[in-house]
C-alpha cells in the first residue's frame, strides 16, 4: 500500500466522487486525495449497513470506510494506494490507460493509433486485453466479443476488424452493467461444450505474453 499522507488524515473527509477507470476504482475525497484500488482476481468491495456481520473475515480487509449508516470494506485487493493529485497524474498504470470501453463513445481513432505501436504479428486476442491500447475489456468479454464478431483470437490484429470488436465489447459490457441476471456466456469457460450456433465443441488455449485462456468455436471463428 503506497500512502504519502498519514492514513488518519482521511478521518472527517467527504467522498466527492467514485470513478471506475477500466478495472481501477478511484474514490475521490475532499482535499484532493484519492483512494486507488485494483481488484485483479482476488479483491472485492462490499457495502454493509453499520453493525452488520461481514461476509469475509476481518483479517482480509485492506480498507474500511465508515460513512453514516454504511460501511464499505475492501477485501484482498492487491493494489491499495492513497494518491495526491500529482501522484495520480504520474501514475504509470493510470496515466497510460487507453480509451475506456465503459465510457462511450469510445475513441476508436485513439484505439487504432495506440494499436499501431504493436507489431503486426501481435494477435487480436492479446490486443483486446492490452490496457494501454483499449482499457476495460477483461477475458470474459474479450472471448465473447471475438465470438460475436466471428474472429479467431489468434488472428493478427491488422487482419481483424478492430473497430467492430471494440464496439461489440463496449455494447455487451454496458448492457451487463445494468442487468440484474447473471451473464450466460457463449464460449467463455465452456471448453468442450457445444457452440450455441453450430454445436461444434468449443476450444480453449492459454497463450500470450501475459497468458490468459482464450475460448472460441473453431467452426464459427476460423483462423484466416
Description:
It is a single chain. The chain is of the alpha+beta class. The chain has helices at 85-90, 92-95, 108-115, 124-127, 139-148, 162-178; strands at 2-3, 15-21, 24-29, 33-38, 44-49, 61-67, 70-75, 79-83, 203-207, 212-216. A five-stranded mixed β-sheet has the order 1-8-4-3-2. A three-stranded antiparallel β-sheet has the order 5-7-6, with no helix packed on it. A two-stranded antiparallel sheet has the order 9-10. Helix 5 (139-148) packs across helix 6. The protein is globular and about 60 Å long.
Supply the key terms.
three-stranded antiparallel β-sheet; 10 strands; 224 residues; 6 helices; five-stranded mixed β-sheet; alpha+beta
With strands numbered from the N-terminus, the spatial order across the biggest sheet is 1-8-4-3-2
Q: Oligomerization state of this entry?
A: single chain
Largest sheet: 5 strands, mixed
Q: Could you list the spans in which at least 5 consecutive residues all have pLDDT below 50?
A: none
Number of H/I helices: 6
Share of residues in helices: 10-25%
Number of strands: 10
Kindly estimate the percentage of residues that lie in beta strands according to DSSP. 15-25%
Specify the overall morphology: globular
User: Distance between termini?
Assistant: 45 Å
Radius of gyration from CA coordinates: 20 Å
Q: What average pLDDT do the residues reach?
A: 89
Structural class: alpha+beta
Can you write the helix and strand succession as a string?
Answer: EEEEEEEEHHHHHHEE
Amino acid at each position: 500500500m503506497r500512502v504519502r499522507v498519514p492514513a488518519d488524515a482521511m478521518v472527517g473527509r467527504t467522498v466527492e466522487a467514485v470513478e471506475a477507470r477500466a478495472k481501477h476504482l478511484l474514490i475521490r475525497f475532499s482535499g484532493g486525495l484519492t483512494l486507488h484500488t485494483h481488484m485483479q482476481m482476488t479483491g472485492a468491495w462490499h457495502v454493509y449497513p453499520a453493525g452488520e456481520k461481514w461476509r469475509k473475515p476481518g483479517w482480509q480487509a485492506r480498507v474500511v470506510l465508515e460513512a453514516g449508516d454504511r460501511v464499505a470494506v475492501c477485501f484482498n485487493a492487491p493494489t491499495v494506494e492513497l494518491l495526491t493529485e500529482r501522484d495520480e497524474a504520474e501514475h504509470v498504470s493510470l496515466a497510460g490507460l487507453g480509451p475506456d470501453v465503459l465510457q462511450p463513445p469510445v475513441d476508436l481513432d485513439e484505439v487504432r493509433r495506440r494499436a499501431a505501436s504493436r507489431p503486426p504479428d501481435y494477435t487480436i486476442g492479446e490486443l483486446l486485453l492490452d490496457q494501454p491500447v483499449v482499457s476495460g475489456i477483461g477475458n470474459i468479454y474479450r472471448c465473447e466479443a471475438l465470438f460475436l464478431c466471428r474472429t479467431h483470437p489468434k488472428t493478427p490484429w491488422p487482419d481483424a476488424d478492430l473497430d467492430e470488436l471494440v464496439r461489440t465489447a463496449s455494447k455487451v459490457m454496458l448492457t451487463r452493467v445494468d442487468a440484474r441476471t447473471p451473464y450466460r456466456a457463449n464460449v467463455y469457460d465452456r471448453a468442450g461444450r457445444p457452440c450455441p450456433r453450430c454445436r461444434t465443441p468449443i476450444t480453449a488455449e492459454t497463450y500470450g505474453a501475459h497468458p490468459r485462456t482464450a475460448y472460441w468455436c473453431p467452426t464459427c471463428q476460423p483462423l484466416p
